Amino acid sequence: MPDVLQDFDVSDVNGSLISPALPTAFTPTGTPLRLGILASGSGSNFEAIAQAIRDRTLNAEVKVLIYNNPGAKVVERAKTFNISTCLLNHRDYPNREALDQAMIQVLHQHQVEWVVMAGWMRIVTRVLIEAFPRRIVNIHPSLLPSFPGVHAVEQALGAGVKITGCTVHLVELAVDQGPILVQAAVPVLPGDTPETLHRRIQVEEHRIIVAAIHQICQSRLKS
Ligand code: GRF
Fold first, then answer.
1. Which domains can be identified in the chain, with CATH numbers?
2. Which of the residues 33, 91, 160, 214 could staple to 60 if both were Cys, CB 3.0 to 4.6 A apart?
3. Residue pLDDT, tens place only, 31-50
4. How far is the CA of 188 from the centre of ligand 1 (A)?
């Protein structure tokens, strides 16, 4: 199997794009990319990935969904796609490192190659990052490096920017930092509330998360 780690080169991917074109379908050759997805809440990004796989837009397989909040809506979504789920409730672990260690065990059990943080509202530690070096992506609802953190949409509105958007990036130790893979821009409209703006950003998120994973698949095929 090619060494995804060594062969993945950030300069290979499209970099920052506004409304990147989405792949239309994958060529049914090559092993599907084995994904582990981390999500904490609604899971609309999780569903966008699962649907793209079902539609054969993405040559990938979600081996496991890890979630940390009992009752999170993402679990219902996973059931409809017959995807294995695993609850790792952060409240049951003494610290972030212990939670990350438990996640690594589950991800390894499912032979996961790449990890997608799709609305994972926990800070990950060196423990997880070193287990999957340059093989973890995160989606964030702003045009990073602007507005990192949990209140990105509110902060964009507060700053009065006319354009915001969303970013998929490789995960590094510093929160919401790391090489940018794909971005999409979203205009801020008069009268926008955090809810209306976030809803429009999420439409773009669902596109760029799929586009980013497709880029990773393509990069792997080149090796
Ligand atoms: C997204 O807006 C993502 O950018 C942020 O958390 C939200 C998760 O949404 N990190 P969903 O659970 O995928 O619907």
1. 4-20+30-222 (3.40.50.170)
2. 33
3. 999 999 999 999 999 999 99
4. 18
